[in-house]
Structure formats: structure tokens, C-alpha cells
Amino acid sequence: MIKKRLVLKFSPQVVNRPIISALSRKCDISFNILQATITQNKVGRMILEMEGSKKNIDAACAFFKKSGVSFQRLGEDIKMDEKKCVSCGVCIGYCPTGAFSFDAEKKVVFDPKKCIACEFCVTHCPYNAMTLKY
Amino acid sequence: MTKSIYEINEKIRRKKAVVLTGEEMVSYVREHGVKNAAREVDVVTTGTFGPMCSSGIYFNIAKTSPKIKLGGGEVTLNRVPAYAAYAARDVFLGATALPRYEKNRIRPINFKYGGAGVIEDLIRGKSVLLEATAYGTDCYPATSLRKSFKLSDLTDAVLFNPRNCYQNYNAAVNRSDKTIYTYMGILKPKMGNISYSSAGTLSPLLNDPELKTIGIGTRVFMAGAEGYIVWHGTQHTTAVKKKNGFPVGGAANIALICDLKKTSPDFLRAAYLTGYGVSLAVGVGIPIPVLDESIARAAGKDDDEIFAPVIDYSQDYPYGKEKAIALVSYKELRSGIVKLGKKEIPSFSWSSLKKAREIAAILKKKIRAGSFLLGDPTAALPGAGRVG
Fold it and tell me: How far is B215 from chain A (nearest CA, A)?
């Protein structure tokens, strides 16, 4: 059994299709939708946590590819701009999952593995050091 | 035993001065005692880096033909309103100024630009658009001006802080049952978090709590440039509660000035505070000459000896009824968890310790190399103590 968290991107062409419903019928995995939004320009973004055998999870990924849904691992889309970060540590107080911490030199470090892409840091970092890139 | 700033400067010139950062001084005093530290150490360097709203710049625009008198008219820089009522060509821009469009958005506003943003754009070498309207006079006939300029186009540009380097500051909590958006950050309901803003043991004015060495004319590190203390800051006071000889809360502060052209974006940055506004983070470092034992003792204190008052920002602060819920040490604040009664509250800081350390280290290097002499104050700040 493995666990995988993905950020899925639904283009305007596929955003209306019941892809997740098809996923539940076709692939034997359990999943949890952590976040789902559709932007003004009709692009869907979903954070999905999947659990199952490696074979089935690979099959789910292949299914997304076939259905025209692009994806990447969660945490890869939230980036820290080291030049903009001043290491104040405000994000440490804001992040709900503890993805930020101080290292020994009191530099703020970001752990993408703990990130659930809630984007709170992207919106509230006073120095705009966090960005969402997909 | 006392020393004088003159004597220390002589040692700096000969590159013989013993200089430690505020943090190194803590270990030195612990190891060798206050007496030895007062004798052996000449200068302790400090540093702080955090948002300080009370910041701005002023400059003089180049002559135009026909001439324009901005005073009495209206001026914006990248659509951010500036103040031009000094004279014909002097423009002052405050860090917290906002373009009109920023104020018309859904609350809590996620600010994207303002005075501090213009200041950062200028020091990054970007072009800024000045738009002005005036009423026109016989000697200044022009009634409008629209012109882009860069920092390098200006003959003079000055960074000025009417208030900076608060000696100490509040720690903020929210006792209400809804989230609030303040200059101390986003505060969760029912004391869900606690924020603070001080460099603690490295904080400049906590290393000379009685202002024995810091005064008008003190030379400082300011946003990467050499700056000066020109006055006491607005809201300066020394009549405050003390604990272990250090003020608890706001207390003393200073007005600072430096050449904007010599500042660096590494130490001068626009800060955007959700739901509150725009501020400017200014890096400041002040060298403290160790003139007597009391200064050695103060400069050698650790974070567990200095305390911040915990203030409620939902009801008490907004209505001027600040009353300390508790006093917490900077050691506890820095640990990430503050215990109030049975509650464990996660803490976070607005002041960057990493940057404060960088500043103290730069200042130490410059003084040891003989390239930064101490300014001997020409006048004391109100409420200052005396050496000896």
C-alpha cells in the first residue's frame, strides 16, 4: 500500500466531465479530496490524496493522463523564492501543517512533503516570497 | 572603570578594538563576568530587521520648463499619493501610503502595493511614474506634470524614519472569538496564536537600556547605508515599567536618517500585511560602546532576562486600554510555544533573527576593519542616563 498526494489540473475542455466519479469506478483505490476549486477562467484545481497498491495508483495516474487531466506531486507547486524570503518566520505561525521551520542558522526552510497547498502562505507572506506554480 | 567613545575610536582606527556581536557578548559575560567584559570589550554590535511603518523618503525633483509648484497641488508616484506641501519640488512619500484602488477591495484586503512598494522599486533601480497637478502661479506656470524617473535621476533622496528601533514591544494575542487582521499579523481567535516583533538580545536599544551611549549624532547601520540618529523618535518615552532593568513594552525609540541611494534591498523591503496595510522593513544596527560595567551587563543579557507584555488586540489595543495579560520572556517567545495558564500558544515573529544577525556581523566586520567609527553623540535623548 502506498499513499500519494497529487495536484490535478482540469483544463476548460475537461472541467465539466465527471472524471473523479469515473476514477472511483475504474480504479480500486481509496481517495480523499483535500481541496477543489474552479477558477474564473474555468480551470479546475484539485488536491487528491490516494491510497492503494502501487499498481492501482499507477493505473489511476494513467487514467488521469488519458482523460486529459495534468498532475504533479503535491508540494511541487508551492515554491519559496529564497531571494524574497527574509526569514522572519511569520509563515511558521500561519501554516496549518507545520511545513515551515527554522534551521540552525534561523533561516526559514520549507518542507514540501508537509504542504497541503492550502495557499495560506502564498496569500499572506508579507514579502510575497511564496508562489503557486503549476 | 569607564572608557570614552574617543578612546574606543582611537582603538578602532588602529584596528585594535575588541568587537563582539550582542549574542557573542552574552556568552562572553557568562564566561568571564561583567567586570572583565567591561574592561576587555570595546564595542557590542546589534541588529534588527522588521516592519517599521514610521518610515518614508523625501527627494527633490529636477527642474522642469515651464516650472511647476507641487506644494498645494497633488502628487502621486505609481498612483500612490505623496506629500508635496513643503515647497515647489520637494516630495515626501510615506511607507504606508496606498493607491485608492487598494482601499476598495474585499476585506480583509490582500495588499499588493503602496508607498513601501514604490520605495523598494526605486532602490531596485526601477522606473517610477510621477503624476502631479498644481494650480499654477506667475512664477510656476505649469499646472500638470507626468514624468518617469529612476533613483539615479535624483540629485538627492533621503530615507527618514520619524520612529524606529522600539526598545521593546508588545506580544499580541486575540481574545475575541473571530480572526483579526492587525499590524502584528493574523491573530487567531481565543488566543490561538501570539506574535511578537523584537530582535530580543540583539535589539539595539535593549543593549543600552538607559541610553547612556546612544544619542543625537550616533552613527548607525541603516538599510545597508551609514545613517544617523537625528532626534528621539515620535512616541519616545523612558517612563515605563521595568523588569531586570529593561523596559517592558514600547519605551524609547529613535528618529533615523540616511542616503536612500546607498541603501540595499537586502535590508529595505516592502512588507504587505493582510487586512492591515503596507509597511517597510528596515534593517538597523547600532554599535554600543562598552563604556562602563552597567553597559557591559545590559549588553550581556540573554533572551530570558527581557520580557514583552502580552496585549489583547481585539478589544484592549483598539480602544487604548492596553493592559498586560502576562509578561513573557523572549526566550519563551522564541521557543515557538508560550504557556499562558494551562494554554500552550504557538508564537511567531515579525522580526527576522537571521537578518538581525547578518547586520550585527556586518557592523562588527566594519568596526574591526577600522572603516566604521563610532559617532560621539552631540546631545542626549530625553530621559537618558549617564556613564559611570
Answer: 29
pLDDT for residue A4 is more than 90: no
Q: Considering the entire predicted model, what is its pTM?
A: 0.91
- Interchain CB contact of A134 with B (< 8 Å): no
Domain co-membership, A86 together with A47: no
Q: Is the Cβ–Cβ distance between B379 and B215 less than 8 Å?
A: yes
Report CB contact under 8 Å: A89, B110: no
Q: Which domain holds residue A33?
A: 2-73
C-alpha distances out from residue B83 to B10, B73, B74, B77, B319, Å: 44, 9, 8, 10, 29
Q: Does A88 touch chain B (CB under 8 A)?
A: yes
Task: Assign residue A53 the CATH number of its domain.
Answer: 3.30.70.260
Quote the number of domains for chain A: 2
**ipTM of the shown complex:** 0.93
* DSSP per-residue letters across B43-109: EEE--EEEE-SS-EEEEEPPP-SS----TTSEEEETTEEEB-TTSSSEEEEETT---HHHHTSPSSP
Statement: residue A134 has pLDDT above 70: no
